Amino acid sequence: MTTLAPAVAGTDARAGWPSWFRSVWRNWYVYSKTWRSSLTTTFLEPILYLAAMGLGVGSLVNHHSGGVNGVPYLSFVAPGLLGASMLQVGVSDCSYPVLGGFKWERTFWAEVATPLSVGDVVAGKLVWEIIRFTAVSAVFLLVMVAFGVIHSPFAAFMVPAAVLSGMSTATVTAAFAATQNSDLGMSLLFRLGVLPMNLFAGVFYPLSRLPWGLRMVAEVIPLTHGVAILRALSLGTGLGWGLLLDALYLVLWTVAGIVLCLHTFGRRLVP
Amino acid sequence: MVEAHGLVKRYGSFTAVDGIDVRIEAGESFGFLGPNGAGKTSTMKMISCMSPLTEGTLRVLGGDPATDGAAIRARLGLVPQEDTLETELSVFDNIYIYGRYFDLRRAQILERAERLLDFAQLNDRRNDKVDALSGGLKRRLTIARALISEPDLLILDEPTTGLDPQARHLLWERLYRLKAEGVTLIITTHYMDEAEQLCDRLVVMDGGRIVAQGTPRALIDQYSTKEVLELRFGLDGHAPLAERLGQVADRVEVLPDRLLLYVDDGDAALGAVHDLGLVPDSALVRRSTLEDVFLCLTGRSLVD
Fold first, then answer.
1. What residues pair up with B155 in beta bridges, in sequence order?
2. Residue A4: C-alpha distances to residues A58, A112, B4, B192 (Å)
3. Distance (Å, rounded) from C-alpha B108 to C-alpha A214?
4. What is the share, in percent, of chain A residues with pLDDT greater than 90?
5. Is B234 on the interface with A (CB under 8 A)?
6. pLDDT score for A1
7. Strand arrangement, sheet containing B201-206
8. Residue ranges of E strands in chain B
9. Of A162, A168, A173, nearest to A80 (Cα)?
10. What are the strands of the beta sheet with B55-60, ordered from one edge?
11. Which residue of A1, A2, A3, A4 is the best one to mutate when testing the B interface, meaning the one whose CB has the most B CBs within 10 A?
């Protein structure tokens, strides 16, 4: 590195924060000032779902077939809803807000006009998502405990599993949003991406109920594998090496999403 | 502060900047004047290390943007053409976050933020959400925010576009203060009066190239006459008159709504026009401006 001309204004005392951390901190700071608006979607919605699906639909299912695979429907559906909730939070955080950071508020450009780099902006966004997923899944887990639907000590690993499941779709969503110029693509993402994923990832019923063709489609969906892991951990059934393959699949999506983010954010921010 | 040779920027097959040379000294207020699409913003993005160059060499603060980008940006203040403020947050929070990007300590940010809020005359709006601010206030906030790191070089990309005259004059006055304090300024603009007011030296850009450079005064002396006589003759018939008027002026420009006669003595020229038996609807004698320089160089006006 060459030496720059000496500073006219003198050298400031630095706080010593790594540059990527300043971007994470920014996301936290903005959230700390605006969290009220996202409170219902983040925390209330999953509880409402849990109550409605678990208690409402659950009583019907339990009455007719004695639960699912031998467990009460609420216990079956709760880990699925946790996975679905992670998908929802991640896509919500990484779709319109990312588009806005490029197009409406344009705050990403404010960041790269300072010592922060494109990599710092991407890291800031994604590390912040990890924090968000951790908080939301921890609260969800507490609600599950309150509902009495945790059946295994392995449930302690549900938070990292939920984070991984959320990241697998959040990263790809952010990379996609960085290529968009209007909210048209975003609404398509929700209709053609999030909705079918929610319906066919085994959140509400066991995948074995699906015909072979649809089942194969379901296997491609990352959430399917997230739900499989979360359900195994909360029920304590189906634990085995197969879960590592599920996790590996989610890691692949996450890594691909990060690489795509660096590419699409970079192409837009540093043309 | 900045030294560029043969600077080129291409986006695909489109050439935005087509081989420019510039040298900007410390303490100088340097302008890039040109119409929209002249390549000013692309040049600013390269100088502010936010866009790699396609060809040529560029040194900013003695460093190479390709390898020292972050270190250079740490000492730049950038006021982009479009606002990049945190619209959901307060005026103060915007300055605070920006200071953090530069890794300043909290106490230092707080102390400087007070001075900057005073400087930008935003003190009574410090807790207001940015969403609710007018365009002029947002610009002032953007400038205040860019100064949080006490940059050696402040780059302003069309700082007053879209502002009303009052807001523009206030902003000019603030920028003039910065200049007096020794901050090196780079300003792009398509307003000739802005360039005349603020710039010690400037380049005129058109189609990605530099078509002229010098001090505002020198450019006017070189490319224009002392005075300009503006004549209006009804709704049409300006073009045929231009030829007849050619004998009383150094040069005649035909604009859609008026004729510009480039002369050394406007009043004498108006007398000569009357002697030709022509009676304009209106006549105005004024000093030459950079707008006239641009018109002379390119045959087009700055603001279409």
1. B78, B186
2. 68, 20, 16, 33
3. 60
4. 76
5. no
6. 42
7. B76-79, B153-157, B184-189, B29-33, B201-206, B209-214
8. 2-11, 14-24, 29-33, 55-60, 76-79, 153-157, 184-189, 201-206, 209-214, 227-232, 251-254, 259-263, 282-287
9. A162
10. B14-24, B2-11, B55-60
11. A4
Q: Which residues contact B241 (CB under 8 A, 6 or more apart)?
A: B233, B259, B278
Q: What is the mean pLDDT of residues B285-297?
A: 86
Structure tokens of A176? Answer: 């996609």
Cα–Cα distance measured from residue A42 to residue A88, given in angstroms and rounded to the nearest whole number: 9
Tell me: the pLDDT tens digits for A141-150? 999 998 899 9
Nearest CA to CA, how far is B10 from chain A (Å)?
Answer: 10
Contact A173, A90 (CB under 8 A): yes
Q: What is the ipTM of this complex?
A: 0.91
Nearest to B207 by CA among B299, B100, B81: B299
Residues contacting A190, CB < 8 A, separation 6+:
A91, A95
Residues A14-29 have a mean pLDDT of 95
Distance from C-alpha of B179 to C-alpha of B190, rounded to nearest angstrom: 20
A103 → chain B, closest CA residue = B84
Closest CA to B178 of B143, B145, B149, B141: B143
Of residues B51, B98, B152, nearest to A7 (C-beta): B152
Residue A238 CA: distances (Å) to CA of A210, A235, A245: 19, 8, 13
Predicted TM-score of the model (pTM): 0.90
Question: Residue B67 and residue A106: Cβ atoms within 8 Å?
Answer: no
Pair of tokens at residue A217: 């489609």
* pLDDT one-digit tens code per residue, A203-254: 999 998 899 999 999 999 999 999 999 999 999 998 889 999 999 999 999 9
Subunit contact A117:B85, Cβ cutoff 8 A? no
d(CA B154, CA B143): 9
- Among A1, A4, A106, beta carbon nearest to B61: A4
